[in-house]
Protein backbone atom coordinates (compact mmCIF):
# COMPACT_ATOMS: atom_id res chain seq x y z
CA UNK A 1 0.00 0.00 0.00
CA UNK A 2 1.42 3.39 -1.06
CA UNK A 3 -0.38 6.57 -0.07
CA UNK A 4 -0.45 9.34 -2.65
CA UNK A 5 0.34 11.75 0.17
CA UNK A 6 3.81 10.22 0.47
CA UNK A 7 4.30 10.90 -3.23
CA UNK A 8 3.48 14.61 -2.87
CA UNK A 9 0.22 14.31 -4.81
CA UNK A 10 -3.15 15.81 -3.87
CA UNK A 11 -6.73 14.63 -4.33
CA UNK A 12 -9.34 16.72 -6.16
CA UNK A 13 -11.50 17.94 -3.25
CA UNK A 14 -9.93 21.31 -2.60
CA UNK A 15 -9.00 21.86 -6.26
CA UNK A 16 -12.63 21.48 -7.32
CA UNK A 17 -14.09 23.61 -4.52
CA UNK A 18 -11.77 26.48 -5.49
CA UNK A 19 -12.44 26.03 -9.19
CA UNK A 20 -16.22 26.23 -8.75
CA UNK A 21 -15.97 29.31 -6.58
CA UNK A 22 -13.42 30.90 -8.87
CA UNK A 23 -15.25 30.21 -12.15
CA UNK A 24 -12.48 28.22 -13.83
CA UNK A 25 -11.78 24.53 -14.54
CA UNK A 26 -8.88 22.20 -13.78
CA UNK A 27 -7.18 20.63 -16.81
CA UNK A 28 -7.16 16.84 -16.88
CA UNK A 29 -4.52 15.73 -19.36
CA UNK A 30 -3.91 12.08 -20.20
CA UNK A 31 -0.35 10.80 -20.36
CA UNK A 32 1.35 7.57 -21.34
CA UNK A 33 4.91 8.61 -22.18
CA UNK A 34 7.73 10.77 -20.90
CA UNK A 35 7.50 13.61 -23.42
CA UNK A 36 3.80 14.08 -22.72
CA UNK A 37 4.39 14.18 -18.98
CA UNK A 38 7.29 16.62 -19.34
CA UNK A 39 5.09 18.90 -21.45
CA UNK A 40 2.18 18.76 -18.99
CA UNK A 41 4.39 19.53 -15.98
CA UNK A 42 6.32 22.28 -17.74
CA UNK A 43 3.10 23.99 -18.89
CA UNK A 44 1.50 23.65 -15.44
CA UNK A 45 4.61 24.84 -13.58
CA UNK A 46 5.12 27.83 -15.86
CA UNK A 47 1.50 28.90 -15.50
CA UNK A 48 1.12 27.79 -11.85
CA UNK A 49 -1.98 25.81 -12.73
CA UNK A 50 -3.27 22.89 -10.65
CA UNK A 51 -3.33 19.83 -12.89
CA UNK A 52 -4.80 16.33 -13.08
CA UNK A 53 -2.60 13.67 -14.65
CA UNK A 54 -4.88 11.03 -16.07
CA UNK A 55 -4.01 7.42 -16.68
CA UNK A 56 -6.43 5.26 -18.61
CA UNK A 57 -6.58 1.50 -18.50
CA UNK A 58 -5.02 1.53 -21.96
CA UNK A 59 -2.16 3.73 -20.72
CA UNK A 60 -1.56 1.37 -17.81
CA UNK A 61 -1.33 -1.51 -20.24
CA UNK A 62 0.91 0.48 -22.59
CA UNK A 63 3.37 1.98 -20.13
CA UNK A 64 3.17 -0.30 -17.06
CA UNK A 65 1.41 0.89 -13.92
CA UNK A 66 4.49 0.80 -11.69
CA UNK A 67 6.45 2.94 -14.09
CA UNK A 68 3.56 5.39 -14.46
CA UNK A 69 3.29 5.85 -10.72
CA UNK A 70 7.00 6.57 -10.37
CA UNK A 71 6.73 8.95 -13.30
CA UNK A 72 3.98 10.85 -11.46
CA UNK A 73 6.14 10.91 -8.34
CA UNK A 74 9.01 12.19 -10.45
CA UNK A 75 6.69 14.78 -11.95
CA UNK A 76 6.17 16.36 -8.52
CA UNK A 77 9.93 16.69 -8.04
CA UNK A 78 10.39 17.96 -11.59
CA UNK A 79 7.72 20.61 -10.97
CA UNK A 80 9.59 21.83 -7.88
CA UNK A 81 12.83 21.93 -9.84
CA UNK A 82 11.08 24.17 -12.35
CA UNK A 83 10.41 26.63 -9.55
CA UNK A 84 6.83 25.63 -8.70
CA UNK A 85 7.02 25.78 -4.93
CA UNK A 86 3.76 24.02 -4.05
CA UNK A 87 2.76 21.89 -7.02
CA UNK A 88 -0.86 20.74 -6.98
CA UNK A 89 -0.77 17.57 -8.99
CA UNK A 90 -3.40 14.87 -8.86
CA UNK A 91 -2.87 11.36 -10.26
CA UNK A 92 -6.20 10.10 -11.52
CA UNK A 93 -7.47 6.86 -13.03
CA UNK A 94 -9.52 7.63 -16.13
CA UNK A 95 -12.48 5.31 -16.87
CA UNK A 96 -11.91 2.62 -14.27
CA UNK A 97 -14.39 -0.12 -15.12
CA UNK A 98 -14.15 -2.49 -12.15
CA UNK A 99 -13.87 -2.24 -8.38
CA UNK A 100 -10.64 -4.26 -8.53
CA UNK A 101 -8.96 -1.82 -10.93
CA UNK A 102 -9.97 1.19 -8.81
CA UNK A 103 -8.81 -0.55 -5.62
CA UNK A 104 -5.48 -1.38 -7.19
CA UNK A 105 -4.97 2.27 -8.15
CA UNK A 106 -5.91 3.48 -4.65
CA UNK A 107 -3.45 0.97 -3.18
CA UNK A 108 -0.84 2.06 -5.67
CA UNK A 109 -0.64 5.78 -4.94
CA UNK A 110 -3.37 7.35 -7.08
CA UNK A 111 -5.05 10.32 -5.41
CA UNK A 112 -8.27 10.08 -7.41
CA UNK A 113 -10.10 7.41 -9.39
CA UNK A 114 -12.97 7.35 -11.83
CA UNK A 115 -15.42 4.48 -11.73
CA UNK A 116 -17.33 4.47 -14.97
CA UNK A 117 -20.50 2.45 -14.53
CA UNK A 118 -22.35 4.50 -17.12
CA UNK A 119 -22.90 1.54 -19.41
CA UNK A 120 -24.58 -0.43 -16.61
CA UNK A 121 -28.24 -0.27 -15.62
CA UNK A 122 -28.85 2.62 -13.21
CA UNK A 123 -29.05 0.58 -9.98
CA UNK A 124 -25.92 -1.39 -10.87
CA UNK A 125 -24.03 1.84 -11.60
CA UNK A 126 -25.03 3.07 -8.14
CA UNK A 127 -23.99 -0.15 -6.41
CA UNK A 128 -20.58 -0.28 -8.14
CA UNK A 129 -19.86 3.41 -7.62
CA UNK A 130 -20.84 3.22 -3.95
CA UNK A 131 -18.50 0.28 -3.39
CA UNK A 132 -15.57 2.19 -4.92
CA UNK A 133 -16.41 5.34 -2.93
CA UNK A 134 -16.52 3.41 0.35
CA UNK A 135 -13.10 1.92 -0.31
CA UNK A 136 -11.42 5.04 -1.72
CA UNK A 137 -12.67 7.40 1.00
CA UNK A 138 -10.96 5.32 3.67
CA UNK A 139 -7.71 6.59 2.15
CA UNK A 140 -8.94 10.10 1.32
CA UNK A 141 -8.90 9.29 -2.40
CA UNK A 142 -11.60 11.15 -4.34
CA UNK A 143 -13.98 9.42 -6.76
CA UNK A 144 -15.46 10.57 -10.06
CA UNK A 145 -18.56 8.76 -11.31
CA UNK A 146 -20.43 8.94 -14.61
CA UNK A 147 -24.07 9.21 -15.48
CA UNK A 148 -25.19 9.34 -19.10
CA UNK A 149 -23.26 7.92 -22.06
CA UNK A 150 -20.68 9.65 -24.25
CA UNK A 151 -20.26 8.54 -27.85
CA UNK A 152 -16.90 7.90 -29.46
CA UNK A 153 -13.84 5.78 -28.87
CA UNK A 154 -11.29 6.24 -26.11
CA UNK A 155 -8.98 3.30 -25.53
CA UNK A 156 -11.28 0.54 -24.31
CA UNK A 157 -14.29 2.80 -23.94
CA UNK A 158 -16.59 2.74 -26.89
CA UNK A 159 -20.19 3.69 -27.48
CA UNK A 160 -22.09 4.18 -30.70
CA UNK A 161 -24.61 6.69 -29.47
CA UNK A 162 -24.63 9.24 -26.72
CA UNK A 163 -27.38 9.55 -24.13
CA UNK A 164 -27.57 12.83 -22.29
CA UNK A 165 -27.46 12.70 -18.52
CA UNK A 166 -30.97 12.85 -17.07
CA UNK A 167 -31.10 15.79 -14.63
CA UNK A 168 -33.89 14.08 -12.67
CA UNK A 169 -31.46 11.29 -11.68
CA UNK A 170 -28.49 13.29 -10.42
CA UNK A 171 -29.60 14.04 -6.84
CA UNK A 172 -30.48 10.42 -6.15
CA UNK A 173 -27.25 9.23 -7.78
CA UNK A 174 -24.91 11.65 -6.00
CA UNK A 175 -26.58 11.12 -2.62
CA UNK A 176 -26.69 7.34 -2.74
CA UNK A 177 -23.16 6.84 -4.13
CA UNK A 178 -21.35 9.58 -2.18
CA UNK A 179 -19.20 10.33 -5.25
CA UNK A 180 -17.08 13.49 -5.19
CA UNK A 181 -17.67 14.58 -8.78
CA UNK A 182 -19.88 13.60 -11.66
CA UNK A 183 -19.02 13.19 -15.34
CA UNK A 184 -22.01 14.07 -17.46
CA UNK A 185 -23.02 13.72 -21.07
CA UNK A 186 -24.11 16.95 -22.78
CA UNK A 187 -22.86 16.34 -26.31
CA UNK A 188 -19.08 15.97 -25.98
CA UNK A 189 -17.56 12.72 -27.15
CA UNK A 190 -14.25 10.87 -27.18
CA UNK A 191 -11.70 10.92 -29.96
CA UNK A 192 -10.85 13.19 -32.90
CA UNK A 193 -14.13 12.60 -34.77
CA UNK A 194 -16.62 13.94 -32.30
CA UNK A 195 -19.45 14.41 -34.74
CA UNK A 196 -20.45 12.74 -37.96
CA UNK A 197 -20.50 15.12 -40.94
CA UNK A 198 -24.30 14.80 -41.06
CA UNK A 199 -24.55 16.17 -37.50
CA UNK A 200 -22.62 19.29 -38.53
CA UNK A 201 -22.99 22.17 -40.92
CA UNK A 202 -20.16 23.08 -43.28
CA UNK A 203 -18.43 26.47 -43.39
CA UNK A 204 -18.89 27.56 -47.02
CA UNK A 205 -15.56 29.43 -47.00
CA UNK A 206 -13.23 26.80 -45.57
CA UNK A 207 -15.20 23.63 -46.24
CA UNK A 208 -14.58 22.68 -42.59
CA UNK A 209 -17.25 21.10 -40.41
CA UNK A 210 -19.01 23.28 -37.84
CA UNK A 211 -20.15 21.09 -34.92
CA UNK A 212 -23.52 21.39 -33.17
CA UNK A 213 -23.53 23.24 -29.80
CA UNK A 214 -23.32 21.45 -26.46
CA UNK A 215 -26.56 20.94 -24.51
CA UNK A 216 -26.11 23.77 -22.03
CA UNK A 217 -29.78 23.44 -21.05
CA UNK A 218 -29.01 19.97 -19.68
CA UNK A 219 -25.97 21.33 -17.81
CA UNK A 220 -28.09 24.14 -16.34
CA UNK A 221 -30.75 21.69 -15.18
CA UNK A 222 -28.10 19.50 -13.52
CA UNK A 223 -26.53 22.49 -11.75
CA UNK A 224 -29.93 23.52 -10.50
CA UNK A 225 -30.45 20.06 -8.96
CA UNK A 226 -26.94 19.89 -7.46
CA UNK A 227 -25.81 23.43 -6.66
CA UNK A 228 -22.05 23.66 -6.17
CA UNK A 229 -21.43 20.00 -7.02
CA UNK A 230 -18.31 19.36 -9.14
CA UNK A 231 -19.17 18.46 -12.74
CA UNK A 232 -16.74 16.86 -15.20
CA UNK A 233 -16.63 17.04 -18.98
CA UNK A 234 -14.98 14.21 -20.87
CA UNK A 235 -14.10 14.24 -24.56
CA UNK A 236 -13.39 17.97 -24.60
CA UNK A 237 -10.64 18.28 -27.17
CA UNK A 238 -11.12 20.99 -29.75
CA UNK A 239 -9.29 19.14 -32.53
CA UNK A 240 -7.36 22.24 -33.71
CA UNK A 241 -7.66 22.38 -37.48
CA UNK A 242 -4.09 23.66 -37.87
CA UNK A 243 -2.85 20.31 -36.51
CA UNK A 244 -5.24 18.34 -38.70
CA UNK A 245 -4.02 20.35 -41.71
CA UNK A 246 -0.34 19.71 -40.88
CA UNK A 247 -1.07 16.01 -40.46
CA UNK A 248 -2.93 15.85 -43.77
CA UNK A 249 -0.27 17.94 -45.57
CA UNK A 250 2.54 15.64 -44.47
CA UNK A 251 1.06 12.32 -45.47
CA UNK A 252 -1.63 11.79 -42.83
CA UNK A 253 -5.25 11.02 -43.48
CA UNK A 254 -7.74 12.55 -41.07
CA UNK A 255 -10.58 13.92 -43.15
CA UNK A 256 -13.41 15.62 -41.26
CA UNK A 257 -11.78 15.40 -37.84
CA UNK A 258 -13.78 17.75 -35.61
CA UNK A 259 -13.93 18.71 -31.92
CA UNK A 260 -15.64 20.98 -29.41
CA UNK A 261 -15.15 24.70 -30.17
CA UNK A 262 -13.09 26.40 -27.48
CA UNK A 263 -15.61 29.14 -26.81
CA UNK A 264 -18.07 26.48 -25.63
CA UNK A 265 -15.48 25.03 -23.25
CA UNK A 266 -14.66 28.52 -22.01
CA UNK A 267 -18.34 28.97 -21.16
CA UNK A 268 -18.48 25.57 -19.43
CA UNK A 269 -15.33 26.31 -17.39
CA UNK A 270 -17.06 29.31 -15.80
CA UNK A 271 -19.88 27.09 -14.48
CA UNK A 272 -19.83 24.16 -12.04
CA UNK A 273 -17.80 22.26 -14.63
CA UNK A 274 -14.50 22.09 -12.77
CA UNK A 275 -12.62 19.34 -14.65
CA UNK A 276 -12.20 19.29 -18.41
CA UNK A 277 -10.59 16.25 -20.03
CA UNK A 278 -8.28 16.80 -22.97
CA UNK A 279 -6.43 13.95 -24.65
CA UNK A 280 -6.91 13.94 -28.44
CA UNK A 281 -5.52 17.47 -28.89
CA UNK A 282 -2.17 16.46 -27.45
CA UNK A 283 -2.10 13.36 -29.67
CA UNK A 284 -2.72 15.62 -32.67
CA UNK A 285 0.01 18.09 -31.62
CA UNK A 286 2.47 15.22 -31.20
CA UNK A 287 1.58 13.58 -34.51
CA UNK A 288 1.63 16.85 -36.47
CA UNK A 289 5.10 17.74 -35.16
CA UNK A 290 6.51 14.27 -35.83
CA UNK A 291 5.05 14.08 -39.35
CA UNK A 292 6.52 17.48 -40.18
CA UNK A 293 10.02 16.44 -39.12
CA UNK A 294 9.77 13.16 -41.02
CA UNK A 295 8.65 14.94 -44.19
CA UNK A 296 11.18 17.76 -44.01
CA UNK A 297 14.16 15.77 -42.74
CA UNK A 298 13.79 12.24 -44.10
CA UNK A 299 17.32 11.36 -42.98
CA UNK A 300 16.55 12.02 -39.29
CA UNK A 301 16.65 8.91 -37.13
CA UNK A 302 17.34 10.21 -33.62
CA UNK A 303 14.02 10.02 -31.73
CA UNK A 304 15.00 13.10 -29.73
CA UNK A 305 14.96 15.10 -32.96
CA UNK A 306 11.28 14.37 -33.56
CA UNK A 307 9.98 13.68 -30.04
CA UNK A 308 11.62 16.95 -28.93
CA UNK A 309 9.64 19.15 -31.33
CA UNK A 310 6.54 17.10 -30.47
CA UNK A 311 7.11 17.84 -26.79
CA UNK A 312 7.51 21.57 -27.50
CA UNK A 313 4.28 21.59 -29.49
CA UNK A 314 2.39 19.83 -26.69
CA UNK A 315 3.77 22.29 -24.10
CA UNK A 316 2.48 25.15 -26.24
CA UNK A 317 -0.91 23.45 -26.53
CA UNK A 318 -1.25 22.77 -22.79
CA UNK A 319 -0.35 26.36 -21.92
CA UNK A 320 -2.89 27.61 -24.41
CA UNK A 321 -5.60 25.42 -22.84
CA UNK A 322 -4.70 26.50 -19.29
CA UNK A 323 -4.56 30.23 -20.02
CA UNK A 324 -7.02 30.75 -22.88
CA UNK A 325 -9.67 28.08 -22.28
CA UNK A 326 -9.80 26.85 -18.67
CA UNK A 327 -8.53 29.91 -16.80
CA UNK A 328 -6.64 27.85 -14.22
CA UNK A 329 -3.37 29.79 -14.52
CA UNK A 330 -2.09 31.31 -11.30
CA UNK A 331 -4.45 29.21 -9.16
CA UNK A 332 -1.71 27.11 -7.53
CA UNK A 333 1.14 29.33 -6.42
ZN1 LIG B 1 -13.54 9.95 -20.98
Mean pLDDT: 94
Bound molecules: zinc ion
Q: In CATH's first tier, which class applies?
A: Alpha Beta
Count of separate structural domains: 1
Distance between the termini: 30 Å
Provide the CATH architecture: Alpha-Beta Barrel
- The total of helices stands at 12
- Kindly identify the CATH topology: TIM Barrel
The global form is globular
Order of helices and strands: HEHEHHEHEHEEEHEEEEHEHHEHH
Report strand order across the widest sheet.
1-2-3-4-5-8-12-13
For the largest beta-sheet, the strand count, sense and barrel status come to: 8 strands, parallel, barrel
Assigned CATH superfamily: Aldolase class I
Q: What percent strand?
A: 15-25%
Task: Give a verbal description of the structure.
The protein has 333 residues and is of the alpha/beta class. The chain has one domain (4-326): Aldolase class I (TIM Barrel), CATH 3.20.20. It is 45% helix and 17% strand. It is built from twelve helices and 13 strands. It has helices at 13-22, 34-47, 57-63, 65-81, 99-107, 122-137, 170-177, 216-225, 241-249, 262-269, 280-296, 303-326, and strands at 26-30, 51-56, 89-96, 112-115, 142-147, 151-154, 157-159, 181-184, 189-190, 201-202, 209-210, 231-233, 273-278. An eight-stranded parallel β-barrel has the order 1-2-3-4-5-8-12-13, surrounded by ten helices. Strands 7-6-9 form a three-stranded mixed sheet, with no helix packed on it. Helix 2 links the parallel strand 1 (26-30) and strand 2. The radius of gyration is 19 Å and the shape is globular. The chain starts with 12 loop residues before the first helix and ends in a 7-residue tail after the last helix. Bound molecules: zinc ion.
